[in-house]
Amino acid sequence: MSKAKPKSMEQLLEEALVPKDEQPYEVPGNWVWVKFGVVAKLFNGYAFKSTDYSDEGIPIIRISDLNGMETTPETAVRVPRELYNEKFLVRKGDLLIAMSGATTGKIGIYNSDEIA
Asked: Which domain of life is it from (predicted)?
Protein backbone atom coordinates (compact mmCIF):
# COMPACT_ATOMS: atom_id res chain seq x y z
CA MET A 1 0.00 0.00 0.00
CA SER A 2 1.51 3.32 -1.02
CA LYS A 3 0.93 6.66 0.59
CA ALA A 4 -0.27 9.55 -1.55
CA LYS A 5 2.47 12.06 -2.21
CA PRO A 6 1.77 15.37 -0.43
CA LYS A 7 0.74 18.18 -2.76
CA SER A 8 3.19 20.98 -3.42
CA MET A 9 2.39 24.59 -2.51
CA GLU A 10 1.97 25.31 -6.21
CA GLN A 11 -0.58 22.49 -6.59
CA LEU A 12 -2.52 23.65 -3.52
CA LEU A 13 -2.55 27.23 -4.81
CA GLU A 14 -3.73 26.10 -8.24
CA GLU A 15 -6.64 24.19 -6.64
CA ALA A 16 -7.60 27.22 -4.52
CA LEU A 17 -7.59 29.85 -7.27
CA VAL A 18 -10.77 30.69 -9.18
CA PRO A 19 -10.15 30.44 -12.95
CA LYS A 20 -9.96 33.84 -14.68
CA ASP A 21 -13.10 33.19 -16.77
CA GLU A 22 -15.13 32.52 -13.57
CA GLN A 23 -14.09 35.67 -11.70
CA PRO A 24 -17.05 38.08 -11.46
CA TYR A 25 -14.90 41.23 -11.46
CA GLU A 26 -11.32 42.43 -11.10
CA VAL A 27 -9.78 42.81 -7.68
CA PRO A 28 -6.74 44.92 -6.65
CA GLY A 29 -3.40 43.64 -7.93
CA ASN A 30 -2.31 42.17 -4.62
CA TRP A 31 -5.59 40.19 -4.15
CA VAL A 32 -6.68 36.92 -5.71
CA TRP A 33 -9.98 35.10 -6.13
CA VAL A 34 -10.07 31.82 -4.17
CA LYS A 35 -12.69 29.13 -3.64
CA PHE A 36 -14.42 29.75 -0.31
CA GLY A 37 -14.16 26.15 0.93
CA VAL A 38 -10.37 26.26 0.60
CA VAL A 39 -9.91 29.21 2.97
CA ALA A 40 -12.83 28.66 5.36
CA LYS A 41 -15.07 25.89 6.61
CA LEU A 42 -18.82 26.44 6.67
CA PHE A 43 -20.99 24.69 9.26
CA ASN A 44 -24.74 24.86 9.81
CA GLY A 45 -25.98 25.73 13.27
CA TYR A 46 -28.56 23.97 15.37
CA ALA A 47 -32.03 25.22 16.32
CA PHE A 48 -32.70 24.44 19.98
CA LYS A 49 -36.30 24.26 21.10
CA SER A 50 -37.37 27.28 23.15
CA THR A 51 -38.53 24.81 25.79
CA ASP A 52 -34.84 23.89 26.28
CA TYR A 53 -33.89 27.45 27.25
CA SER A 54 -32.59 27.96 30.76
CA ASP A 55 -31.15 30.71 32.95
CA GLU A 56 -27.90 28.75 33.31
CA GLY A 57 -25.72 26.61 31.08
CA ILE A 58 -24.19 27.08 27.64
CA PRO A 59 -25.03 30.33 25.80
CA ILE A 60 -26.90 29.93 22.51
CA ILE A 61 -26.08 32.54 19.87
CA ARG A 62 -29.19 33.23 17.80
CA ILE A 63 -29.67 35.38 14.72
CA SER A 64 -31.10 38.10 16.98
CA ASP A 65 -27.69 38.22 18.72
CA LEU A 66 -25.90 39.10 15.47
CA ASN A 67 -25.43 42.82 14.97
CA GLY A 68 -22.91 43.11 12.15
CA MET A 69 -20.08 43.62 14.63
CA GLU A 70 -19.03 41.73 17.73
CA THR A 71 -21.31 39.11 19.20
CA THR A 72 -21.07 38.10 22.86
CA PRO A 73 -23.06 35.83 25.18
CA GLU A 74 -24.16 38.73 27.40
CA THR A 75 -27.78 38.71 26.21
CA ALA A 76 -27.83 35.14 24.86
CA VAL A 77 -30.31 32.55 26.06
CA ARG A 78 -28.81 29.41 27.54
CA VAL A 79 -29.42 25.67 27.51
CA PRO A 80 -28.39 23.05 30.08
CA ARG A 81 -24.83 21.71 29.71
CA GLU A 82 -26.10 18.20 28.92
CA LEU A 83 -27.42 19.54 25.58
CA TYR A 84 -23.92 20.68 24.61
CA ASN A 85 -22.68 19.23 21.32
CA GLU A 86 -19.05 19.69 20.23
CA LYS A 87 -20.17 19.76 16.58
CA PHE A 88 -21.93 23.12 17.11
CA LEU A 89 -19.30 24.77 19.31
CA VAL A 90 -18.74 28.49 18.77
CA ARG A 91 -15.31 29.84 19.74
CA LYS A 92 -13.83 33.31 20.07
CA GLY A 93 -13.10 34.74 16.62
CA ASP A 94 -15.67 32.62 14.75
CA LEU A 95 -17.60 34.48 12.06
CA LEU A 96 -21.31 33.72 12.36
CA ILE A 97 -23.51 34.22 9.30
CA ALA A 98 -27.31 33.92 9.18
CA MET A 99 -28.22 31.54 6.36
CA SER A 100 -32.01 31.57 6.29
CA GLY A 101 -34.98 33.80 5.70
CA ALA A 102 -35.01 37.58 5.57
CA THR A 103 -31.93 37.75 7.82
CA THR A 104 -29.66 35.85 5.39
CA GLY A 105 -26.24 37.46 5.42
CA LYS A 106 -26.55 39.03 8.87
CA ILE A 107 -23.17 38.54 10.60
CA GLY A 108 -21.34 38.80 13.89
CA ILE A 109 -17.89 37.82 15.10
CA TYR A 110 -18.05 35.90 18.36
CA ASN A 111 -15.89 37.80 20.85
CA SER A 112 -15.90 35.89 24.13
CA ASP A 113 -13.65 33.33 25.77
CA GLU A 114 -16.79 31.48 26.92
CA ILE A 115 -17.81 28.66 24.58
CA ALA A 116 -21.27 28.95 23.06
From this structure: Bacteria
